[in-house]
Fold:
Amino acid sequence: MDALTRRRFLLASGVTGAATLAAGGGALAFSRLLGGAASEAEPPADTLVLVTLYGGNDGLNTVIPYADPAYHANRPELAYPGERVLPLDDELGLNPVLTGLKRLWDGKRLAIILGVGYPRPDRSHFRSMDIWQTGVPDVPATTGWIGRWLDDTEAPVGTAVSFEPVIPPLLVGRRRIGSCISYQGLDMPPWVDPGLVAELGRTEPGEPEMSARAASAYTDLIELQRVIGGVDEATGSPKAVAEPAVPATGTGGESALSAQLALVARCVEVGVPTRVYSVSLGGFDTHADELPTQELLLRQLDTALSSFADRMAQSVAGRRVTVVVYSEFGRRVRANASDGTDHGTAGPVLVLGQRVVGGFYGEQPSLTDLDHGDLKATTDFRDVLGSIVGSVLQADPSRYFEGYEPRLLPLSTG
Structure:
């Protein structure tokens, strides 16, 4: 069956798969990524997983200053009472839905960096995210801090991978660029036989190159679905991937974090030499009805991260994985009139993994000494990113932040 016929069949039947049918620049086949797995004789390298929370996560209702009267006074309808918070010490605690992260904290596998921000805050989602992903707060930049590392190391294709439909600026360098593989596998209507779609992925002897490439594309979609959702024991076909209902806010990010991390886990376990993975979760722009929305998102984040951390703890390569969770900014201290919060400044960054030295880093910002109603950052974001570059990527962080010399945090056991 030629490539055009395959494509027409899938489109006519309603079978879609963003991973390969609509791949754009930087797209990489999942099968090719897995095919680059290192041999068992090669020791695993450290791996970085960057989790972006798009929309501006409310850090004050994530890592909660429950003992501070100013917290309760500024958001009487949004503040969590102390008895509901998961206490980390006598002053700070986790949101009550973050039970998995609390378990990682108790096991000293979770570090929380407090008050992270950048000079002269910008409350635009897009400008602020650009600053975080480029690592340059002063002027617009055209490369990401990981992209500059890719340039510097002359990294081969597949060194940095995003399991999202497009490549984030984070992974863009001047001469090197990361790859993207959408986590979305096959979306088949119930009347389409999965076995027939699988047959479309079989190549035939002497088949033209374009036709063979089309066949491998369908095979790739099936493999993505299998890794994310598993296999139905009754039919032997990939299970459908259930995506949770996450509010769309138009500020970026994907909706199925567990699915993205399942692909990362598979790559780590088979020895793929990728050093950096980028995944995301969107929907954190909580201007109204914040409590139910943020709890839904944080519960999804908690389930995905804690399950991934537990899975990674089972292998040598997995124990060399470090996960960093950040958002473009926090929210304002005072709640608004819509039971939500507006764009703010500083917030916490989470770092987790087997090699992470758990505990608090930095200083919790004051809730009374504010900058026009906003938190004053106590930790420069480049200190966090530079510490990750040094400890996980084993590179000189002073090379990647436009002349800024990061003050390194002892986040890793080395």
About this structure: The chain has two domains: 3-27+190-229, 36-184+252-399. Residues 3-27+190-229 form one domain.
